[in-house]
Amino acid sequence: MLGWIVTIICGGIAGWLAGKIMGSNFGVIVNILLGVVGGAIVNAILGPILSLGGILGGLISGVLGACALIAVGRAIKKS
Predict the structure, then answer these.
(1) How far apart are the C-alpha atoms of 7 and 72, rounded to whole Å?
(2) What span, in angstroms and rounded, lies between the C-alpha atoms of 11 and 32?
(3) In angstroms, how far is CA 56 from the centroid of its own chain?
(4) If we measure between CA atoms, which residue out of 57, 56, 13 comes closest to residue 35?
(5) Residue 2 CA: distances (Å) to CA of 9, 63, 71, 73, 78
(6) What is the pLDDT, as a whole number, of residue 26?
(7) How many whole angstroms separate alpha carbon 51 and alpha carbon 20?
C-alpha cells in the first residue's frame, strides 16, 4: 500500500516538474499519469543499463519519461 502512495506522489511531482520544464499546463491527474507512465517506460528501457532505484531515481526517470510523453503528444497533435 505504501509503495503505491509513494509512486503516486513521485509521479505527481515528476509530472509537475516535466510540465514546468516543457512549458505545458495539464491538470494534476494528467501530471500524475504522465509521471508514473513515463517513469515506468524509462525504467523499462534504461533499467538494464542504469540503476535508477529509490525515490530520487524514480523522480529522475519520471521526469525524463513525462517530458518524452509531452514531446510525443505535441508531435502527434501537430501532425
Answers:
(1) 23
(2) 5
(3) 12
(4) 13
(5) 11, 21, 31, 31, 39
(6) 75
(7) 25
pLDDT in tens, 32-65: 788 888 878 887 787 777 666 677 777 888 888 8
| Residues contacting 16, CB < 8 A, separation 6+ | 31, 35
Residue labelled with grid coordinates 499519469: 33
Q: Where are the domains of the chain?
A: 8-44+55-72
All three cell numbers of 77 = 497533435
- CA dist 64 and 47 (Å) reads 13
